[in-house]
Every structure is written in C-alpha cells, then in structure tokens.
Amino acid sequence: MKCENCTKKECSKKQKNDNEQNVPLALLNSNDENEERNEFHRLANAKIFLSDCLACDNCITSDEAVRVFQQNQKELFHVLNLNKKCDTSKHKVVAVSVCPQSLPYFAAKFSVSVTEAAKKLCGFLKNLGVHYVFDTTIAADFSILESQKEFVQRYHHQNQEKHSIPMFASACPGWIQYAERVLSSLVTPHICTAKSPQQIMGSLVKGYFARQQNLLPDKIFHIIVAPCYDRKLEALREDFHAPVYNSQDVDCVLTSGEVFQIMEQRKVSLKEMADVAFDSLFGGIKEDELIRHDGRKSDGYLEHIFKHAAKELFDTEVKEIVYKVLKNKDFQEVTLEKDGETVLRFAAAYGFRNIQNMVLKLKKGKCSYHFVEVLACPGGCLNGKGQAQTEDGKPDKALLRQMEDVYAAVPVRLPETNTHVQKLYQEWLEGMDSVKVQESLHTKYSTEKLTAHHLDIKW
Ligand code: SF4
C-alpha cells in the first residue's frame, strides 16, 4: 500500500479496519465511482487511504519530522521548569489557546458541560504554571469573516479569473498539506487565502496580545490544544514565522488526548481541579460563557459563507440551511434557488474519499460548486485523530457521540456580532481592507510538490 508521493515499498502507517473512510477506493462499486477510481488510480498509481495520505509520514521532510516530534508535553514542561529557575532571561510567558472542537472531548471525558470542562481545563493548566488560557473562537470569527469577504470577491471575478470558483475552505491543515504537496497547482489557486483559526490565534497572541503586554513575540511560548496532529505540522509553516524574533506564531501544538494524558499521569481528579474561567485577550475581562459557531461539527464555514453570499449577492436572507445528502453523510450540498435557477451551490466534503471525488470532478471540469468546505476527517473536527480514538488507534464512536451532544448544546454566535472583533479591525489591523489584514489574517500556498528526503515516522 503506497501513497501517491511515496517511494517506499511498504507504507509504515498503521492500518485501520473498521472506519469506512479507510475502505480502499478499489472497493467502491457504483459505475460512476469505478470510473473515478480508474482515473484516480491512473493519477496516483496506487490504492490510497486517508490515514496514509493526509499529513502522512511519507510526505514530511526529516527536518519537519524532528520539529513535529518536539511538540510534546516534554517541551511544555521544559519551558515551565525554566520559568522556575533563577535565570530570568530564559523565562517565558506561557499562553495556551484551546480550539472549540477540543473542549467537547474534555466535557465528554469529565461528563460535564463544555463550559464546566473549559473551567476545569483552565484550572489544571494554571496549576501547572501556565499564565494565560484563551479560547480560539475569536480567531475563527476572523477566519470566517475574511473567508466570506473573499468568497464574494471571487464570485464577482469568476469570469475574469478561472481559478476563482470553486473556492475551497482553508481551515483544515490535513487538507492543505495534501493539496499543496500532492495536488499542487491543480487546486491551490482555489483555496481561500484566509488563515486557519489556529494561525490567526498565533497572530493575535504574538502580535496583538504581545504588544498589549509590552512583550516581544519570542518571550511568549504559545501552545495550541487541538483535536488533531495535523495542526503540529501547520504550526511549522514558513509564513507563520517572524524571522526578526526567530519566533513561530504557534510554538507547540498538543492534541486534546495528549493533554488528557498529562492529567492522567499527574493523577489529578476532577474535584481537585479548580474552576477557573478562560482569560481574554483584552486585559482583566474573563470569558465566562463559551459560544460556538453554527455548523456541522466544525467552525461552520459553509453555513456562514452561504448565508453571507445569499444576502450580499442575491439580497436573500437565509434563516436555515437545508443540506441534501449526496453519496454519503460526509458529502452534502446546499443550494440557493432564485427565479427557478440555482444561483449558489455549496458542498461539504469530509474525509479522503469525498475529497478525492471532488478533486477528480475539478480535474475533469465538472465541479459545479461555488464553495466546498473541505475537512480531512470524516465527521469533521470532533472526529480528529488526536481525540476521537481509543488507545489502540481505533475510532471511539461512543466518545464521538458524546462529544457531538455536548457540542450541540453550546450556544451559537455570529462572528459579525462580536464587538471585540470589530474593535480589533480598527485598533490592531488599521481597518477592514488594510495591508495589516493581509499580513495578519491571510496566507499563501505553495504550488510545488514535495521532493525532499522522506523519513519513516509514526504518529
Ligand atoms: S478535519 Fe481533522 S485534520 Fe482537519 S482540522 Fe479538523 S481535526 Fe484536524
């Protein structure tokens, strides 16, 4: 079994048995899928599995592998221990930013609500010596708003620029990694340039927050708690590095499962963890009530962009999004009709099989979507491999169901209604369309396939 870029005889990734996403394409049986499969095999000359292809061990360089493995609890404790030593020149402010899709994991593990789980997690981290604990929802607000804006611009330019439409979502690093390193210029011009919430949080913490606290970026050690390992690789991207300070916007990513392991190693019971509200980027204010974005187990890019585009482009208020399930529950579409004509066609394509189908359609010039929310994990981010798996690497379906229930109970807020975001556009970013917005909230994609030396590693 080999990946498209793989030069090895035998892939070292462990194989999963009971996840339908890992069914090889060769087992799909409709005529249509067979046709796509054949084309795909010509393209890839191999059977491809999700677990092998997205951020796979054969697609990262030896240098990246070393730096990915450095992002673990040892690194966190190294920094926390230096903070206890007399040499203050080595002290750092430790800030942890938690993804909203990680909190349901702790809520399910503790059997409490998401808000209660957040307080326990924050209390635990502060007890270890962490100075600030933030929620990355504000970064997702920025990412969604910038994606909405870019979609409308691309829609207007679709006749002049052939890569404008479809626009693909940019929030999932597993997908971005695969697009850049395997598909390259076939899809990268279609990917929205808005940074992912993780990397916008990096800009907020090392840019805005550092300035507020009179700190240089390299004096902050910024950790993200995330549902997947792919985010560790994302944190290494060159455009998220400030050479002047030799500082990454995100220094270390720990998965939810890795943080839970620290809790287990320390044998701390839920009762022993203090209830501490999340910090805010805005001084003394505490984040008491957590909110989430609309959407299917993710940050809801499809829903937000669809409603925004319907209003901006067709003066239509969409109250509720109605999904039509296509080939499976992870491939769904949403359309807007106007005067009997379909004017907007969006899709959610989760998991490798659906991504591959969509890419093949694009290659054949048959992709009729204006926007596709692409996520590497079937079921979305709650199902990330850093939290929804048993210890032996199998999908933990019972845990996933619990996570989905607690996540659904979190109140929803529109990014447009976040007054902090509006204020930051003015005070930090110098306006809505400034150079600083481009620098802090947008990124570029590489169109060169990976040719570097590969290294054998396992997650
Ligand atoms: S879909 Fe999976 S790989 Fe992509 S960001 Fe979400 S958890 Fe990570």
Automatic annotation (TrEMBL):
Matching SUPFAM superfamilies: Fe-only hydrogenase (SSF53920)
One of the record's GO cellular component terms: lamin filament
Matching Gene3D superfamilies: 3.40.50.1780, Fe-only Hydrogenase (Larger Subunit), Chain L, domain 3
Lineage top rank: taxon: Eukaryota
InterPro entries: Cytosolic_Fe-S_CAF, Fe_hydrogenase, Fe_hydrogenase_lsu_C, Fe_hydrogenase_ssu
MF annotations from Gene Ontology: lamin binding
Stored Pfam families: Fe_hyd_lg_C (PF02906), Fe_hyd_SSU (PF02256)
UniProt domain Iron hydrogenase small subunit: residue ranges: 393-449
Similarity-based family: Belongs to the NARF family.
Protein name: Nuclear prelamin A recognition factor
Organism: Salvator merianae
Source species taxonomy: Eukaryota, Metazoa, Chordata, Craniata, Vertebrata
